[in-house]
Amino acid sequence: MNANYMYSLIAVIVLLLLAYVGVAGLHLEVLFGIVFPYVAMAIFVAGFVYKLVGWAKSPVPFPITTTSGQQVSLPMVSPARIDNPNNKLGVVIRMLLEIFLFRSLFRNTKFEIKDTNKFSYEMEKWLWLFALAFHYAFFVVLIRHLRFFTEPVLLPVQWLEKLDGFFQVGLPGIFLSGFVLMAAVIYLFLRRVWIPQMRYISLPADYFPLFLILAIAASGILMRYVAKVDIVNAKELTMGLVTLRPTIPEGIGVLFYVHVFLVSVLLAYFPFSKLMHLGGIFFCPTRNLPGNTREFRYENPWNYPVKIHTYEAYEDEFREKMIEAGLPVEKMPGPEKNLEEGEKE
Amino acid sequence: MPNNSKGMYNKNLVIAGIVIFVILAAFPFWFNVVKSAPAPEVVLTEKAKAAKECVRSKEYMTTDHMVLLDVWRDSVVRDAKRTYVNPKGVEFNMSLSNTCLDCHSNKTEFCDRCHDYASVSPYCWDCHIDNPQGGIE
Fold it and tell me: Is residue B12 part of a domain?
């Protein structure tokens, strides 16, 4: 038992019950089917933009890019142009690879102490694999849901449904993405619980989104395969929302409202949580800055003017005294030249 | 670091990104502005109206007809059992073409309307001809 994930689990269960009681008991269909989705969408968009603007206003004075390759240096040293790019093109390629393939996670290693006093770092690709599965499955699920929000349904959405239901298992045909999403979320949760270091650093803010997404996926899967809802009425409601003529059709089924409410919670929670990495990845200074600190001098824009006293000026001021004291000076006064002068700058 | 109250860095890029985000997030809203098709109404044939009730209740058929058809298919294809007895004890021939489409002979106005609306493309019709009256076995 761990307070961090118990709180998150309880929070999600309370949300579930709230929607269930609200619709099945109190018949607040308008609240859960119309008001909450609109409010959530408004919070999502406004909060998202607010966060982006906030980040854009935060100065990043230095290139704090993290690198995993050789920076462009002398011609004889071969540089890593994607892992440590020194120009815009390289940065764009690194960002694209990060966004679509999660290269940072691919570098994940497992630290262990083997035998006695012997450290070892081992390859650990499971996080990368399941993170990739999770994000792409979620993306496919999201795009598939456009069938409830467009009329006529876009052709690419239909192609995606065909692809997702490729194996034609049962009726209604199984969409793989939903189950991949569930499995990946469960892995991402278990990883936090099983690995002691992960459990130690995991907070309710880490568990809550996982449970919430798990509940959303589970309610969606239940609604499609087990406790079916009237899909035509469901679409009538969602279409009403997006055409700004909201209606509550009769008899959709409580599960639908639970699902919609959980999604509303996710949307409203999104901009203020770790999930905001969707927008944050574009502002990630360790990824989006070029590693060109050898080529360009970066100056802190907040540097106040410092009164400088260079060594040259210092020596000019104290040369006689230094010579008297027998200290070496760079410029000897008079016609005779110091031998070392040529070597120093 | 405290926010710079003067303004955003890389302003053009950030604003372009925000515009793209808002356009994508609002996609369903502007996509449906041009025309919004109302929810489909299914048309019952005279025969279907006269029959009053389908194999199962209307509510069950609305949500679970595909499950029933799946069970029927397995029963017929795998076990060669063609008789279905509903909870009321009425017997039916397990056949999409001969039982379902006998009453609901208007596929375009009955089946397709909801299927198209919900973007469902059942592969029933890959084999089954939608109008058995046409004389094709």
Answer: no
Question: What's the angle, vertex CA A96, arms to CA A95 and CA A101, rounded to 5?
Answer: 105
Sign of CA dihedral B39, B44, B50, B51: negative
Q: Model confidence over A33-86: pLDDT tens digits?
A: 999 999 999 999 999 999 999 999 988 878 888 888 898 889 999 999 888 998
Residues of chain A with Cβ-Cβ distance to B56 below 8 Å are none
Please report, rounded to a whole number, the percentage of residues in chain A having pLDDT higher than 90: 67
Cβ of A239 under 8 Å from any chain B Cβ?
yes
Output the furthest CA–CA distance in chain B (Å, rounded): 79
Backbone φ and ψ of A264, nearest 5°: -60, -45
**Is B63's Cβ below 8 Å from some Cβ in A?**
yes
CA–CA min distance A301, chain B (Å): 12
Q: What is the pLDDT of residue B1?
A: 42
Question: Where do you find CATH 1.20.950 in chain A?
Answer: 3-38+68-260
Q: How many structural domains is chain B composed of?
A: 1
Predicted local confidence at residue A1, as pLDDT: 61
Distance between CA atoms of residues A241 and A151, nearest Å: 13
pLDDT at A105: 92
ipTM: 0.87
Indicate whether B96 belongs to any domain: yes
Looking at domain A3-38+68-260, its CATH class is mainly alpha
Is B6 within a domain? no
Query: CB contact, 8 Å: A45 with chain B?
Result: yes
The string of pLDDT tens digits covering residues B74-127 is 999 999 999 999 999 899 999 888 888 888 888 888 888 899 999 998 888 887
Cβ–Cβ under 8 Å, residues A243 and B34: no
Pairwise CB contact (< 8 Å): B118 & A161: no
Number of alpha carbons in the 13 Å side-chain half-sphere of residue B119: 23
User: What sign for the dihedral angle of Cα A28, A30, A36, A37?
Assistant: positive
Check if A233 contacts B (Cβ < 8 Å): yes
Q: Is residue B19 in some structural domain?
A: no
Q: What is the least distance, in Å, from the CA of B137 to any CA of chain A?
A: 25
Tokens read off for A217: 């996926």
Q: Is the pLDDT of residue A340 over 70?
A: no
Domain span at B56? 46-134
Q: What is the model's pLDDT at position B132?
A: 52
